[in-house]
Amino acid sequence: MRSRLGERYGSLVPQDGMIPAHLLGNMWAQEWGNIYPLVAPATATGPGYNVTELLKQKGVEPVEMVRIGERFFTSMGFAPLPATFWERSLITKPRDREVVCHASAWSIDNRDDIRIKMCTEQTGEDLVTVHHELGHSFYQRAYNQQPILFQGGANDGFHEAIGDAVALAITPEYLKTIGLLDAVPSTAADTMLLLREALDKIAFLPFGLLVDQWRWKVFSGEVAPANYNAAWWELRNRYQGVSAPVTRSEAEFDPGAKYHVPANTPYTRYFLARVLQFQFYRALCREAGHAGPLNRCSFYGSKPAGAKLQAMLELGASQPWPQVLQAAIGESHMDANALMEYFAPLKAWLDRQNAGRTAGW
Question: I need a labelling partner for 65 at 20 to 30 A (CA). Which of 5, 56, 90, 267 fits?
């Protein structure tokens, strides 16, 4: 990324230093996928399709996008969503009032009144978000027989990781199966698909770690109010390798620009989820009998995978999370090997691209 941005912006991007944060296509430089067109090699074989365009060509409206997500789960053996879900969810932005459009999933009565709230649009990004949010919904319903104290994810990362693991299964093969894509592109297109995905999922990891590092230092008193902003940028520099676009001082409060800081919302859950989702995904792929590159797996329609997932979801928070993980996937600790296996084709390509370049900052 640094090398490609250096080719575009010259000395603005030092090749032995940090990337200026404002060049990465996201307000917090937490995910970099928005600038994929700027960094993808012109000669590379692209994915050959655009999910947003496919949705529009096929006339798939927002409610049908949610139906598609529901069918992924029912294909694995889960019961359909209750009628009240469709009556009470907010799926598109109302015309008569302002609402908070940040997507979320809710269990109103801790039983069967489950709903989602999102301003769904005909985009590939929102199709992924739908699958993610329904992961929350099916999780909420699965553990609704647990005592109220155990109605939750095994740890904070589990709830976010479930939907993400399902969203990973939105492969070209899956898109063809559900009628969105006419032909599956060759594996030559996988490298650029993985690059686009890594710009979000891999680039996010250091940011996902540092937000709570800052919050905890504030709570403990290690970081005093007089150093709030400096401590924030020290962590951004150290973990992300990004620099502030302009000189910052304690007259600014940049951490407050991230919703979760003023809202006092724990953030490590998202870091945990970025690791756990690949472990869940690999386990479900194995249960579905997938053979071949991990990134090409979709467990759509696999009842064995669905039974394995249902068994884990039903446990909720009734056992310590390592025990839940062991029972579900045969592993008792978090491990990034599944993530590395998923991105292996991209890693081989990146090693060739970066030969002779300076790594680090």
Answer: 267
